[in-house]
Each structure stands twice: as structure tokens, then as C-alpha cells.
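Risk mitigation, structural track. In case the binding assays with zinc ion fail to produce interpretable data, a predicted complex structure has been prepared as a fallback.
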Amino acid sequence: MIDKSLKRVYLDIGHGRDTFRKRHAKGIIKPNGRVFEEHQFNSDVAIKIKEKLEKLGVEVEWLQRPHSKEISLRERVKYINARHKEKPYDLLISLHANASNDGTANGYGVFYWHTNPDGKKFAKNWVKNAKKILDIKPWGNGTWKSQLHKWTNFCIIRETKPTALLIEHFFFTNLSELEKCNTPEYIEKFADVTVKTISEYFGINHVDISNKDLQIIQNHYNFSDDDMKSIELYRNGKEFLRRLLNKI
Ligand SMILES: [Zn+2]
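Fallback model:
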């Protein structure tokens, strides 16, 4: 039976580890001769997002493993829609970094299908959180409509059943943005923006409890270490602990 309270997110990692080598696209040779491959960054962000979402009790699935070979868009879409029938997904997030012939183009942008109000809401919130967490700028106003007969007509957004977003985190063709954003610090921040937006979207509360308070709860209720860990991992677990604390 499907647990309806459990939220499911599909993470789509843009491109594959063989894409740049095969197509000479979705990557760049930097002035120092080293190669940046978009898939590498997309995978790194995806791994962080998955870790953080699972701590909030959100189920995450991806079709291809991070750092794996490219799976065609057609196959991905077919798989996602087939899976969605068996086990519905609440969101599909496709992770990317942007490219332009103009080396000064910069900033983040989130694409949503233009007739989907949930997608629009998500995109706007992502930008709102990005403005707080990142110190790079939005590309345009940060939200982009994906629609038919336009260059924004992305198959992964148009053809998939769950509400789908495509996030372009930054422009890797802008060398100073690349140096800044393809770092562990920024990868963490980008993941935080997405996780915060997803948890707001699902109404999962971010509650912070100090270690001292956790200790008080554990002692008072005689919880084992395992009990504490399971409660924390449960969706809204921290909120539950906060309620227990208030009763002491
Ligand atoms: Zn891409």
C-alpha cells in the first residue's frame, strides 16, 4: 500500500559523465586546460540534496546514479511516467548549470511549465530562498516559463507527469561564476536553497533543537539513542521533539 503522507521527489541529474567527451557540449575547457563537466556539478548537488531531504523524511529517487553515463531524455521521461503510475511522485527536479556564448551571462534561473501554478509557486520560492542564501544574482528575474514553440520548451518539464522544475544553478561559461559556484561551499548552499524550497512546498517545518534540549528530552522520556535517531529522521520529527520538550 502507498503511504500517502510520504513525500517523494524525483531528482534528475542533467546529462552524463560521457556527455562532454561524446558531444563536446555541456562542459568547458578552462584557461588552465582543465575540463569542467556539467554532469559532475549536477551530480554533486544532487547527492547533497538527497542526503538533506532524506533527513527530513522525504523519499528521493533517481534514474541514473550520480556520475553515471547519459540516459536519453526520451528514456528518462518514459521511465518517470511509468514509475509515477505505480507510485506517484510529488515533484521532479532536474539539476543543471547553464551555458551561453556570452561569457558575461550570469545567475540562476528556474524553469516551470507555464500552465502549472504549483510549478510557478515553487520557482518563485526557490528564487526567494536563493536571494537569502546565495550571493550571486538571478538570471532575469530568476523564474522562467517553459512553453510550447519557445526555446524554453523543455521535454523534461513538458512530458513528465509530476510537477517538474528545471534549475540552472549558474553559468559555467562565465569563468568567475564557475570558480565561485563549483566549490563545496556553493554546492552546499545550492542544495540548501532547493531543500528549503521543497520543505516549504511540502509544509515540512524546519525546527532547530539544541543538543542540550535533545539531551533533556532523551533523559526525561528514557529514550534510547536509536529512539532519538528514528524520531529525528521521521518527517516533522523535530517538530514532534519540540512538542515533547514543551510538555516537560
Ligand atoms: Zn544541462
